[in-house]
Design brief:
InterPro entries: NAD(P)-bd_dom_sf (IPR036291), SDR_fam (IPR002347). Pfam families: adh_short. The chain is α/β, with parallel strands linked by helices. Helices cover about 45% and strands about 20% of the residues. The chain contains seven helices and nine strands; from the N terminus they run βαβαβαβαβαββαβαβ. The strands form two sheets. Strands 3-2-1-4-5-6-9 form a seven-stranded parallel sheet, with helices on both faces. It has a two-stranded parallel ribbon with strand order 7-8. Strand 2, helix 2 and strand 3 form a beta-alpha-beta unit. Helix 4 packs parallel to helix 5. The chain starts with a strand and ends in a 7-residue tail after the last strand.
Length: about 230
């Protein structure tokens, strides 16, 4: 029996690492993709069954090369988690055109490139999972999130289009709205007085993401909102 393969685009020390741990524990081979090699190597040394690939999510040629390497090394991916994002924050006056474009390229264009690499084999198998990690900004554009909000909205719309097209072919596409501050050292430093209950734990987010990858076809979720129990909404 073949070992299932999960690809994580945007594998960092927070949610990306938690996704890798969750799928590794479930017996998957996990391909970790990110720009920074040092972070990738640290994750591979920590998490069994993982393999690192330096990756530029916005480069079509790089997508072809890296996903070909994954297929050669590990096999065809059954699950793609698109976790790549940007931190292009600012209002209209502070947003540079190049920053606006980069936010779209990483969040939406890069998601398209990754999906195009995994869908052919998923079609042939009649099954597969594409899970896109989004944010509240995909649903409402706050004043200080011009680039980020527009990019996440484009990403969500892309995921919805893919879900409508690929669902009848047996491929489950889902979108995760993380309506929370994720519990990381950087976010803790920004809000040192916030209680533990204010933050979303990466391992808890990963458990919900894994749930999406295991849903039976008769009861699929497209959009899943995740927020701490004390978060107002």
């Amino acid at each position: 029996m073949k070992v299932p393969v999960c690809v994580i685009v945007g594998a960092g020390p927070g949610n990306g690492a938690a996704f890798a741990r969750q799928f590794s524990r479930a017996g998957y081979h996990v391909a970790l993709l990110a720009r920074g090699r040092e972070t990738l190597d640290a994750l591979v040394s920590e998490i069994a069954g993982t393999r690192a690939y330096t990756y530029d999510a916005t480069d079509p040629a790089h997508a072809q090369h890296v996903f070909a390497a994954i297929r050669e090394d590990l096999g065809e991916p059954q699950t793609l988690i698109y976790n790549a994002s940007t931190r292009e924050f600012g209002d209209l006056d502070a947003t540079r055109p190049d920053a606006f474009e980069r936010a779209w390229r990483v969040n939406a264009y890069g998601c398209l490139l990754a999906a195009q690499q995994v869908v052919p084999a998923m079609r042939a198998a009649g099954q597969g999972n594409i899970i896109v990690i989004g944010a509240t900004a995909s649903l409402k554009g706050s004043a200080g999130f011009v680039a980020f909000g527009a990019a996440k909205a484009a990403q969500r719309s892309l995921a919805q289009s893919l879900a409508r097209q690929l669902g009848p072919e047996g491929i489950h596409v889902s979108y995760v709205v993380i309506d929370a501050m994720v519990d990381l050292p950087g976010t803790r430093a920004l809000m040192p007085a916030a209680p533990d209950s204010f933050f979303a734990k990466p391992d808890d987010i990963a458990e919900s993401v894994f749930f999406l990858a295991r849903q039976p076809k008769s009861a699929w979720t497209f959009e899943l909102d995740l927020r701490p129990f004390r978060e107002p909404w």
